Amino acid sequence: MSRSYTESALFRILNPQSVCFMGASNRINSMGTMALLNTLGSGYRGKVYVVHPKDRTVQGFSAYSSIAALPEAPDLLILVVPTVVVPQVLAEAGKRGTRRAVVITAGYNEVDEAGKELQKQIDEVVEEYRIRYLGPNCLGFVNRSHCINTTTIPFDGRSGGIAFASHSGSYVCQALPYAEEMDLGIAEWISLGNEGNLDVVDSLDYFRRHPGVRVVGLYLEGIRRPEAFRKAALRLAASKPVVALYSGGTREGARSAASHTGAVSTPGAVMAGFLRQCGILQAETSLQLLQWLNAFERQPLPKGPRVAILTNSGGPGTSMADQVGKSELVLASFSGEVKERLSKTLPRTGSASNPVDLSFASDLSVYGEKLPRILAQADEVDAIMVYGLAVYASELWKRMGRRAMKEIPLETEEMVTDMLSAQADTMIQALTSSGKPVIAANLDARMDPGVRRVMVQGNIPVYTAPEESVRAMEALWRYTRIRERIEDHRA
Amino acid sequence: MSRSYTESALFRILNPQSVCFMGASNRINSMGTMALLNTLGSGYRGKVYVVHPKDRTVQGFSAYSSIAALPEAPDLLILVVPTVVVPQVLAEAGKRGTRRAVVITAGYNEVDEAGKELQKQIDEVVEEYRIRYLGPNCLGFVNRSHCINTTTIPFDGRSGGIAFASHSGSYVCQALPYAEEMDLGIAEWISLGNEGNLDVVDSLDYFRRHPGVRVVGLYLEGIRRPEAFRKAALRLAASKPVVALYSGGTREGARSAASHTGAVSTPGAVMAGFLRQCGILQAETSLQLLQWLNAFERQPLPKGPRVAILTNSGGPGTSMADQVGKSELVLASFSGEVKERLSKTLPRTGSASNPVDLSFASDLSVYGEKLPRILAQADEVDAIMVYGLAVYASELWKRMGRRAMKEIPLETEEMVTDMLSAQADTMIQALTSSGKPVIAANLDARMDPGVRRVMVQGNIPVYTAPEESVRAMEALWRYTRIRERIEDHRA
């Protein structure tokens, strides 16, 4: 049972020593070419072979006319060939000695009876040659530590602890630009497609044993092996948080899932209960899924549900407080001592209850250091939410100074720049000094370079909507409870 | 009753011929200075006066020592002076002949008994001099048509039909960078603060009569005049959609609202019912509020609930379908004829049911023109959702080509560029040719310049999360019904 993760079929697919592409061509607008170019662009250091029936050169590579003609059996075969040809190509590869494949080609169980027949042929071939494969109808995978990305979209972002297994290839590849922008740290992302051979249960087992994986995301359209899934999920959730998005819960979603990956779906309410039993957190939207993965990857878990909200803006602070009221979190109730320290630090217009509302202070250290430190040190606070992190670091604010520049002294822009750079690091240090989780929101989260710097340097997730940042913190707290529950159950 | 909107107090505050700032100084990091610089930076063409007790020059302006010393009575006074001084300053301005003010200064009903006492003094002064004012505890306003923005954050984005009245000043100013990024078209945005004199009901009446306003957003922490609000809202909603975010619905939210704007809140369920009665759509998060305003401003209303989903990605398409299943929309059921036209156009791996899933086609005109045109023309479709709008126009995809460039022929990058620019316009034209509303989603909506171009040129709102795009379309449909209901009631 405790095989090393390096012996699993998924590891061997995701860490090939050599890759052979079939379906890459000199047309840039084809799936096979994209897979090839993206693999090259990711810095893959293994051997690359291209098989093409006619062209002798493909994207700069000398192409081989067939698998049989290759100088060695490639470690991994990546296929984007016509649907009917796949069984035969797999058989050729099997004969040559190849044991791993990614079948990007679609048109099987998700389409019609002819497709189902072809899937059976594939089943027979891979059994004969003991081939393990991802797909069909998938986009392969991203493995950052092996510098390989077979999907259609490049990723130049951060390597980290987030693993993701998805019935949808698009969610794997189209989430990459978002991940890059929001500085999500990616470990291994897998497109499962129709799960002809390797499925989500295999992924759960693999991610559990993988030492580089700290949090697991799932996009599900149905679950083919519910009992195995439940066992694997509970074992995984005992040590790593798992967040799932499920799209097959309505009649409309279920029909779409069937024609997408041939999935057999379960009504939403039933799946919600099942995922809860499995120790899995369910996200409501695809964006929430990514946001929660980001929070889990970057922040420690809260030891309790008591949240302090620090804001320089009454409205967003109130929205956060209201969202806490709708959640499993509670607003921390400050002791007399903490209240007094806050009151002494705040201006008269500020509020020392929770949310702690700065309102406005021209002394930047109030918001950038003093208030954060009081909250970080308070025993009655388990977690900190911040609105307006680095709001002074706003490029917009600088722009305002600049455009009135002809009217104002020249040193002013420099004053702003100094102010900007002074504040961010101090605030991050003060906020995180306690080891408590910190999540932030800023309506201009994506645009503002100052805020982006905080995201990158400070490891603090920053969301656009105040309400969504509270939901992410709630997810952290709910996972703390899930893990306790699983541990209690085992004891 | 049918006074022109130009005679209302709000119009006169938002369209001043001259403005006097009290509280601006040579310190850039002060609220008064920000209000001054932002007004100048917005291109305000009226007269600007600065009153400062000591300095003779403020941000390049010759400052006057008092209101009495001004050469004329300014049309509008903008105050950021100490809390206790405001009543006296308003009296001086009243004597000088000024009748309109924005009181940014805070520290009144939202703080303590002393603050409430000061508010009463203000009430007496403004009654004596017939002064109408915004605030206290507000950030003033943005009026695009008059080139004035008194908030702390600049806006260089698009002028348009969105009006917004908010108990929170932060939501007015901090939503501006988001609005700029997402190309929201702004008319007039008003920060109401404590509503000492002008309140949300006044705003509803004003926005109804304002010919430049097409959709109205509200951020509410409580409603001081519920019966007047209901009447004003119903009259407004009969001709313009109104979307509200309410943050005072939980005990936590209500407490925070009280210390923010002195609001008296109502439990969430009660407020939800009340807003429904008023014909107002309630958003769940601050981001949803802005997203819905964007959709209303850019798109026509659907004539019915039947949605067609067009996607090049199975997963996001399924998420959209599932969200339709949870909404008041329905998935359009295609006639045999439409199905046949779709099937003939799609590749074998595609799906001609709803969602229409392209899967993959190297012929760009399939997704970029043929499928959109079939759906736009179909009688059984009231509205179109698109996932992967301009996905071929992705800079990322171009990047992929570029980084493998040393291996591939040099003409490839040009091929991609040609492909990119060819597609977007054609697709927009095909989608919108029917006059049906179109809303799109792209996980990389913000990052991709190609997608951003579609947003700007095509007037099509593009959201990051597929689920949120469906919610926005549902809001359009729900407003269609609200308007019918109000009309029926009147008939």
CATH topology of the largest domain in chain A: Rossmann fold
Q: Please state the oligomeric state of the protein chains shown.
A: homodimer
Number of domain modules of chain A:
3
Could you tell me which chain pair has the largest interface and how many residues each side has? A-B, 113 and 114 residues
Mean pLDDT of chain A: 90
Backbone structural class of chain A: alpha/beta
CATH C-level class of the largest domain in chain A is: Alpha Beta
Beta-strand content of chain A: 15-25%
The CATH level-2 architecture of the largest domain in chain A is identified as 3-Layer(aba) Sandwich
**Main sheet summary of chain A:** 7 strands, mixed
The CATH superfamily of the largest domain in chain A is identified as Succinyl-CoA synthetase domains
Strand order, largest beta sheet of chain A: 9-8-11-10-12-13-14
The Cα radius of gyration of chain A reads 26 Å
Could you explain how this protein is built, in words?
The structure is a homodimer of 491-residue chains. By secondary structure, the first copy, chain A, is an alpha/beta fold. Chain A folds into three domains: 5-134, 3-Layer(aba) Sandwich (Rossmann fold), CATH 3.40.50.720; 141-298, Rossmann fold (3-Layer(aba) Sandwich), CATH 3.40.50.261; 306-479, Succinyl-CoA synthetase domains (Rossmann fold), CATH 3.40.50.261. Chain A is built from 17 helices and 20 strands. Chain A has a seven-stranded mixed sheet, with helices on both faces. In chain A, strands 15, 16, 17, 18, 19 and 20 form a six-stranded parallel sheet that branches. In chain A, strands 2-1-5-6-7 form a five-stranded parallel sheet, sandwiched between helices. In chain A, helix 13 runs parallel beside helix 15. In chain A, 63% of the residues are buried.
